[in-house]
């Protein structure tokens, strides 16, 4: 249980709020670069701010205020030029730093006043990495953008999946440090959704949570497992401050505002041995729906099941009414670290996990027990020894609605046509 005021601190993300200021000190993925293959401008809302993400004809990305400085027209209806974005109302043009570099009528009739008229709109930094576009909305100097080790892996099929989840970001992130839900939500509930009544999945017998520079690791022993299990020796990562890392994929929970979250996930599947070299020209991005035709939440896929839990907790979970138990040890640690680190930020310190050296940011390792499989690959016939990896060969289990063209590209990359994974 948490006092109402403390819940407010965890959940409010607009400028000037403690958590809003805290989260602005990290880079956040906000889109797939491939979204800009067939468009140049995207309206985005991020941490309670209305912005426009664009790619100009030089290929430079900009993230600027949604509203034009002149008379406040919506720049997401503007158009890009060789450099920058132009307002569609009277043609004022801005560069990626937010500087208004052209005011067509004024520049024609009063070129002498050009300097005097200088104005700007707010603008934030954007960087592309591993097919994702990351934004930084915090104070300068910006920290380095961490290049997580999986972003450097070769010969993999990567894809980016985006969904909008209508609830606060923090209940989404608490899910990253919540091992017991796997047993119930993904194992036992999935079976029942398929119309069976059992058996019950292996129970959790022991849990352990440990902090490290870039988050928390949770460790578990389930019935049939032991302390020698990689789930206990290595564990899995609740990645600071708003992501989940499971080896083959990342899930970020990026606050749109206090009541909405952008779920943005990045997936990597190493092609089987013998299918190398495999190089993707660009990382495909697709949008996953979260409601079915009856307006109910989709529950057929793993992350969709998580979404059901998150939105079910309410638009902003009321933590003054919860009943925490021993399965919530990780959640308690995560909340405490946020409160402590917000205090530390107010004293002028860097926030947890900040990387200031370009060298250190070049390849940041995270705990994962199947790294070698990702690096060296497996023979197709050996996938059956790794049920979680093998599952992926028959279809995309994480989110609903994978476009058939992406499945086809995956089947081709993996050489699955005509196998029992893709008999057709
Ligand atoms: S409102 Fe944008 S140029 Fe006038
Ligand atoms: Fe889950």
3D structure, described in words:
It contains twelve helices and 18 strands. By secondary structure, the chain is α+β, with helices and mostly antiparallel strands. The protein has two domains: 31-136, Rieske [2Fe-2S] iron-sulphur domain (Rieske Iron-sulfur Protein, 3-layer Sandwich); 149-414, Naphthalene 1,2-dioxygenase Alpha Subunit, Chain A, domain 1 (Alpha-Beta Complex). FE2/S2 (inorganic) cluster (FES) binds at residues 68, 70-71, 73, 87, 89-92. Residues 175, 181, 185-186, 306 line the site of fe (ii) ion (FE2).
List keywords for this structure.
Rieske Iron-sulfur Protein; binds fe (ii) ion; 8-stranded mixed beta sheet; 18 strands; 24% helix; binds FE2/S2 (inorganic) cluster; alpha+beta; Naphthalene 1,2-dioxygenase Alpha Subunit, Chain A, domain 1; 2 domains
What's the short story on this structure?
The protein has 424 residues and is of the alpha+beta class.
- Portion of residues in beta strands equals 15-25%
Count of distinct structural domains: 2
Could you say what the CATH topology of the largest domain is called?
Naphthalene 1,2-dioxygenase Alpha Subunit, Chain A, domain 1
Largest sheet: 8 strands, mixed
Are there runs of 5+ residues with pLDDT below 50, and where? none
What is the name of the CATH architecture of the largest domain? Alpha-Beta Complex
Supply the CATH class of the largest domain: Alpha Beta
Shape: globular
Strand-pairing-aware structural class = alpha+beta
Can you count the beta strands? 18
- Termini separation: 53 Å
Overall average pLDDT: 97
Report Rg.
23 Å
Number of helices: 12
Give, in spatial order, the strands making up the sheet with the most strands: 12-13-14-15-16-17-11-18
Helicity level: 10-25%
